[in-house]
Amino acid sequence: MLCAILCPDMQQEYELVVVTSVETGEQDQRSILDEVKKMVEAGKGEIASVDSWGRRELAYPIKKNTEGLYSIVSFKSDPAVPQKINSKFKLMDEILRFLLVKKESEKAAVRGKKLKVKK
What is the DSSP letter of 24? Predict the structure, then answer.
């Protein structure tokens, strides 16, 4: 949150994985993804890609569900948008699980590889 205040023009890349209940259906899944798009665009960000993986078996039962509908959204926005998405998704019952991560920059990835070589 401090970065959002100190450097408001700094946009970062994020990736969101959403698993919704099969019972809610694909129409509800699309409405959830539309909400994500609206939040990102309201925060002056942009959606890079939206991938729907469809129906998949879960590794373990979640809320008595053994299958879920998977979607992955890649987007670029300021740091405040993921916090809004996180707080909104925690309250939604039709979402079984979600994971929102900041993508690692190429410089950090290169720096990490260099450190591994020196060991």
Answer: G
What number of other Cβ atoms are within 10 A of residue 64's Cβ? 6
In this structure, what token pair is assigned to residue 71? Answer: 């979607």
**What's the token pair of residue 2?**
């401090």
Neighbour tally for 71: CB within 10 Å: 22
Of 18, 26, 1, the C-alpha closest to 74 is 18
**CA diameter of the chain:** 51
Whether this model's pTM surpasses 0.85: no
Sheet holding 12-21, edge to edge: 46-62, 65-77, 12-21, 95-102
Q: What is the pLDDT of residues 33-89, one digit of tens each?
A: 999 999 999 988 999 999 999 899 999 999 999 999 999 999 999 999 999 999 999
Cα–Cα distance measured from residue 72 to residue 98, given in angstroms and rounded to the nearest whole number = 10
